[in-house]
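Open question from group meeting: does this chain pack into something compact, or does most of it stay loose? Before anyone orders reagents, we agreed to write out a predicted structure and look at it together. Recording both the input and the output here so the notebook holds the full record.
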Amino acid sequence: MSISQRSAWRRTLLAALLCGASFPVWAQDGSDITYSQPQAPSLNMYGVPGVLDMPSVEMLPDGQAAFSYSYAGGISRYNMTFQAFPWLSATFRYSGIEDLDLYGFDTYYDRSFDLRLRLLKEGHYAPAVTLGLQDIAGTGLNASEYIVAGKHFTTPGLSPSGEGQLHVTAGLGWGRLGSMGAFTSTGSRPSYDSSSSGGQLSADQWFRGDVAPFAGIEWDSGQNWSLKAEYSSDAYVTETEKSDVFERKSSFNFGAEYQVSDTTRIGAYYLYGSIVGVSAQFQLNPRHEITPLVIAAPDPVPPRRDWAEKSDWDPSWAQSETSRSKLFEDLKTALADDGILIESLTLHARSVDIRYRNPRYQADTLAVGRIARVLARYLPATVETFRIVPIVDGMAASAVTISRTTLEDTEYLPDATDAVWAGATVGDAPAVGADAQINGDLYPKFSWALTPYTKTSYFDPSEPFRLDVGAQLAATWQFSQGWKLAGAVRQRVWGNIKDGRLSNSVLPHVRTDQTAYAQEDTTLKNLYLQHNWKMAPDIYARASAGLFEEMYGGISGEVLWKQADNPLAFGAELNYVKQRDYDQLFDFRDYDVVTGHVSAYYRFEDYLLEVDAGRYLAGDYGATVSLDRIFDNGWSVGAFATVTDVSSEEFGEGSFDKGVRFSVPIAWLTGDPNRSSYGMTIRPTQRDGGQRVYVPGRLYEDIRGKDNTSLTQQKAGFWQ
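Structure tokens returned:
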């Protein structure tokens, strides 16, 4: 096995750990400095900023992701919270309640979503105010709403400075948080319809019913320890009055927490006068470095004024085929040392067009910066304009134009990144010149990799988390520019997805037969032929045929309109697919469908809004709306929802398709530069409505990473 393949094993093994844990992020920085995470508030048992069971007023730092687990009195909660905007956070929660006789399960599992909105920032005298909606689209078991205010005060502490922090919280709750000690009412609160499919917004309940106060304090010693106490307004009616999960003897809760590291916090509590609870909290922020990427420093830019003599400014070199060929070979060798491949080179006396492929660096600006410096070292003094064109799947995605003089003048400025980027332009890529030198070493090209794989299944009531692990052999043959044949074979070593529950869907089983598809140990994951090309300067195209994924094969076509300097893009895709047989070899089942979508994409700052409308795999028509937060180091976190003409009764549990997803670059786990990422999508319930076929190589994701918005977002990588 080659070194690169062994590295792939290590990267994939580390990625597999993300099935159950998360890790600090990296940024592409060659320094050996370690950066702390931003200071963040502690979390309550529900995984949101809070005291013990009650919420507090704080928001997480912008972009923060928090993962937590809590257990008390037979109730366990797995929580994921993301601070999507400075003023808005969202939480997904998976709860288990032991011995809840009401629903007939040994352990009853429940899924819920929360939203928190900051109404007022804390001032010198004024408290901060936050509004919260808990369990807004679940079963309603944890449904509540609240308005909470809070203030911070400096107190004596245990830190060397002698200062601690006292956080004071008080609020009003409805629903669960209005069930103990209510002092007034805002009208009748409709009860949850247990016969419904769940998953729909319960807006008719919001801020209705009994209103009860809650309060709490947290003292932060200034030296990792904190103490907490609260008055709870949650009567735990379902768990204590309608069942016998635990005994509630008091409304007062007490606890202590210890900050183990910048990212990890643990706590122990005495709750409701009768039970002991524990929690583990893990927070990270993709915007802050912890494990920097280690790469060799590039050579500096040699200003022409330091070495160029009068003869070096003679442009006649450009007429020499020998001179241009030697420069081409020198540049190929120099850039290959940086892991960058030249597709073609067009040399003129005053300018150069270089088309490159970047298989190594997550940030394309890092590749652009290194290419620019190599060009400055090797090209004759007459060449002033560098036009650097990234190539993805055989297509020119954009063109970064940089003045050599700007490069020479800005390298050592305090604001070098902003200075060089202010002088650069990102526009549409020009056509390949007739006199371009083509790199004949790139095609045909065969590559392969043997790596571990993991596959997960969630929220089966009898086994909430299922996992398959094994080995995957993947191979790709790029036999011409824009053409490739790719496939992958999997061998499962261990797993229990095959033991999952069978589908009860009344719709065509386009996704819910995953248990049937998990019966075989050796499977052909995919095998497909793909061709990518540009139909016009701003129009990209893809055609694919073969076995696209474990469940479907067929033919697919896609077009995308995307300008390099425009945040808006439009696409259209049409597919004819047949359902593969359960053994995932070459046979098909008796189900086929024509499916397709028109899509609109809009990128603003580090957010991506996408709307897809069309026909889905079950023959249903509708639209999907998704919003993702995209960070400059390759992280992304987002959510989506799909509504089609399938009714909530036909859809089944959950009422409509929705979920959260994230993608993490592998490089911050290993410290090795590479473009691989590990992604995960979590749906509260996998059903058949609103499902799309997975076709490898969809256009927008690759193309948008090379546009002006993405490159500008990543501009800090230019001088690395």
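Observations to bring back to the group:
Residues 321-336 form the longest helix (16 residues).
The chain has a mean pLDDT of 89.
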